[in-house]
Amino acid sequence: MDIELAARQLEALGSPTRLKVYRALVRAGHDGLPVRGLQQRVGIPASTLSHHLHRLILTGLVVQERQATTLICRAVYPAMRSLVGFLVDECCLDEQCGRAGEAA
To answer: Where is the HTH arsR-type domain positioned along the sequence (predicted)?
Structure first.
């Protein structure tokens, strides 16, 4: 993953409100949530939700799809997995795991 994209995604998730919105979408699963249902779950005004969704969409963490008159929001799970992987893939690589307890 590109470090610039990871930084933008982490910055987008750095807002408590956006993190709450994103977690609600992740929890909803692949069917996503209509905007009105998402608004009810997170308890924020529509204009505020729109602002926060826009930031999440710009970073590729969320997509929207129009179904007739309803706007459905979904978490982009491959993007989420990529970001989480970016954070943990190199965990403890410099530590040389297992060497500290070995006898010489």
So the answer is: 1-95
Least Cα distance to 52 among 78, 85, 23 occurs for 23
CB hemisphere CA count around 99 (13 angstroms):
6
Q: What is the pLDDT along the chain (104 residues), one digit of tens a residue?
A: 999 999 999 999 999 999 999 999 999 999 999 999 999 999 999 999 999 999 999 999 999 999 999 999 999 999 999 999 999 988 888 887 655 555 44
Q: What does 62-82 look like in DSSP terms, one character per residue?
A: EEEEEETTEEEEEE-HHHHHH
Which residues, including other chains, have CB under 8 Å from residue 20's CB and lie 6 or more apart? 42
CATH 1.10.10.10 fits 3-85, yes or no: yes
CA angle 57, 2, 24 (to 5 degrees): 35
